[in-house]
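Continuing the batch. This is chain 6 of the set; chains 1 through 5 are on the previous pages. Same settings as before, nothing changed between runs. Recording input and output for traceability.
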Amino acid sequence: MDDNILEVLSMKKYFPIKKGFFKRTVGQIKAVDDVSFYVKEGETFGLVGESGCGKSTLGKSLLRAIEPTEGSVKFKNRHNEKIDVMDLDYKQLRDIRRDMQLIFQDPYSSLNPRMTVLNIIGEPLICNKLAKGEELREKVKHLMEIVGLNSRHLERYPHAFSGGQRQRIGIARALATNPKFLVCDEAVSALDVSIQAQIINLLEDLQKTLNLSYLFISHDLGVIQHISDRVGVMYVGKMVETATTEELFTNPKHPYTEALLSAKPIPNPRLKKERIILKGEVANPANPPSGCYFHPRCPYAKEICKVQKPSFNEVSPGHQVACHFAGELDLKGSVAI
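Output for chain 6:
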């Protein structure tokens, strides 16, 4: 039986570059360039990479919050039917969004300062005609309680809450329609470290209680290692490696993944490791290099890397890499926590 709740195939999102008086298209920014992956039911798929690599654009594109340029997104809805989100019209898309929700990065700007908590969390219920009147109020109270907020604060405005509490409001709003799948777009990056831990623990508890599946986007390797079952690594709009969390952190197969892991702090002052400093600049998504996008910065690059794009191949069960020499390089992983 197929246990994938989401299957993304050849996803692309190109933004046109327009110049001149007539705004002619003179190029394209390849924010997401031919990305494929899947998410199993009840699991957390972590997506990691440098800022600007296309993580958030990918997350919003598969929900069609941003219209993708090309690709397929197969999603298993609440009736266990596989539906291609890209083929849906406006009404069908509105229905499927009950099952697919987004938790935003910034808990400050993602909440309307002129709306009370009751209005903010209740809006998805009203828009989807799921509740009204006293039933609406009771459902919002229940949602507040399951995310750890005091239900007596229904009439408060967002400015009266702390950053962590505002993010809990955002999570409650995302849960209002009883979704199956959540895109967590840098959901803890704007919070203090202690509050981050509380929100991560809340998301893990909710996942177990409500059988949720997550696409968890972050640039924090520590957070990704803690919360994810499997991890995908992106570089300049492309997926370069996917594997189980343990496999990726202990046995990376792509040079970019190795460099990322070398920057991860070790929680032990007696242990030291060599930091890999990549030379050059991150490739320009508007004018990417030929061959492998990473080859100008890769310490292991050879001539073939400059002229031929590597295919995304499986080097071991569940471990896929886009590198010509994935099976030959002896790369260093991260120290386990």
